[in-house]
Automatic annotation (TrEMBL):
Keyword set, alphabetical order: Amino-acid biosynthesis, Branched-chain amino acid biosynthesis, Cytoplasm, Leucine biosynthesis, Magnesium, Manganese, Metal-binding, NAD, Oxidoreductase
Keyword NAD included in the entry's annotation: yes
Note on how the cofactor is bound: Binds 1 Mg(2+) or Mn(2+) ion per subunit.
Annotated ranges, domain Isopropylmalate dehydrogenase-like: 5-343
Protein name from the UniProt record: 3-isopropylmalate dehydrogenase
Residue numbers binding NAD(+): 282-294
PANTHER family: D-MALATE DEHYDROGENASE [DECARBOXYLATING] (PTHR43275:SF1)
GO MF entry, a single one: 3-isopropylmalate dehydrogenase activity
Organism lineage string: Bacteria, Bacillati, Actinomycetota, Actinomycetes, Micrococcales
């Protein structure tokens, strides 16, 4: 709690733009007694193209020495053949989530006053997606046979371990128990993905017995996307696999005011490795370098970082300032730094 040696990976595209504002907010609220250092690391598509390094073993070892990581976004020009195959997405972002055992990918979605949801009658939307972060179809378990021929076969086999499913489901139950609605929804596709789906449901059923006050629900992922649009207030805590969680959290962001507001934390709950906080969005090449990116998602990720680092009051101050700014925002277009300035101006002392 009294030490925060932060690693900053601003990344590509709008990453450095939003992280600049997020770091300003962090440094404005951090209690003065904290032993704070920040170290910037250049990793991302740009660094890879310039140096050939995606993430070396030495760099990974250096990152492990930090208490937390703040990341902007990584990913370059999608048309650049040198970046094909998700070289930085897999080799940097997913590598960090896996190597630092970020098995909880926490992605809150809340409609707060002043935010224009595209839904006409959204209701009281306040839910958290607990996305599994180290397994599933992201595990890299696949390959191509007869590559480049008309008979090529590509597989991408989802990996689900009892250990991996149990620990993320347990985290989700703990979270649900602390929230007023005390509801947990498993989102999967157990009518088709029967082996993994059965495992997830069995684990949920087993752990549910330890949390009798948590109401348990199940939705197939396709139906979950319906309800996220037609009745999103039915959700409290959603627990789901890595790929379903990726998809439904972009949808969750969209209904809760847009991808520019959606914060996330890649958490290693036991603190064995540094947790990593990042906006849900990517490097947004379409708006990069124009000062148009909304830094609110990155700033909200700082609030999650502070909370996870034991600085609850500082986290609350950031959240309150973000809410006040959202409530006053209206539809006047503002630049990245203007939004940062406005949020900093609203920080309570
Ligand atoms: P994206 O999230 O970068 O962009 C999708 C849309 O949302 C774009 O129109 C973009 O302009 C808009 N947008 C995103 N963030 C915004 C913000 N803060 N303010 C305003 N508008 C915002 O998704 P994409 O286009 O699918 O991906 C672009 C690149 O980013 C790809 O290389 C992808 O692999 C990578 N990516 C990285 C991360 C990450 O580092 N965590 C996450 C997602 C995508
Ligand atoms: C996200 C991103 C990443 C993911 C990509 C860039 C690997 O979309 O953080 O949501 O799929 O997890
Ligand atoms: Mn995503």
């Amino acid at each position: 709690t009294d030490r925060l040696h932060l690693a900053i990976i601003a990344g590509d595209g709008i990453g450095p733009e939003v992280i600049g504002q997020a770091v300003r907010v962090l440094e404005a609220v951090l209690p003065s007694g904290v032993d704070y250092t920040s170290t910037e690391y250049p990793f991302g598509a740009g660094h890879y193209l310039a140096t050939g390094e995606v993430l070396s073993d030495e760099s990974l070892a250096a990152l492990k020495q930090h208490d937390a990581i703040l990341l902007g976004a990584v990913g370059g020009d999608p048309a650049d053949p040198r970046l094909a195959g998700g070289i930085v997405e897999r080799g940097l972002l997913l590598k960090l989530r896996f190597a630092l055992d970020h098995y909880v990918n926490l992605r809150p979605a809340e409609i707060v006053p002043g935010v224009a949801s595209p839904l006409a009658q959204p209701g009281d939307v306040d839910f958290v997606v607990v996305r599994e972060g180290t397994e599933g179809p992201y595990a890299g378990n696949g390959g191509v046979l007869r590559d480049g021929t008309p008979h090529a076969i590509a597989t991408e086999v989802s990996v689900n371990t009892e250990y991996g499913v149990e620990r993320v489901v347990r985290f989700a139950f703990e979270l649900a128990q602390r929230r007023p609605r005390k509801k947990l929804t498993l989102v999967h596709k157990k009518n088709v993905l029967v082996f993994a789906g059965f495992m997830w449901q069995r684990v949920v059923d087993r752990i549910a017995a330890e949390y009798p006050d948590v109401v348990v629900d199940y939705l197939h992922v396709d139906a979950a996307t319906i309800f996220m649009v037609t009745d999103p207030s039915r959700f409290d805590v959603i627990v789901t696999d890595n790929l379903f969680g990726d998809i439904i959290t972009d949808l969750a962001a969209a209904i809760a005011g847009g991808i520019g507001l959606a914060a996330s934390g890649n958490i290693n709950p036991a603190g064995e490795f540094p947790s990593m906080f990042e906006p849900v969005h990517g490097s947004a090449p379409d708006i990069a370098g124009q000062g148009k990116a909304d830094p609110t998602a990155a700033i909200g990720s700082v609030a999650l970082l502070l909370e996870q680092s034991g600085h609850r009051d500082a986290a609350d101050r950031v959240r309150a300032a973000v809410r006040a700014d959202l409530d006053a925002r209206g539809d006047v277009a503002r630049s990245t730094s203007e939004i940062g300035d406005a949020i900093i101006a609203r920080l309570s002392t």
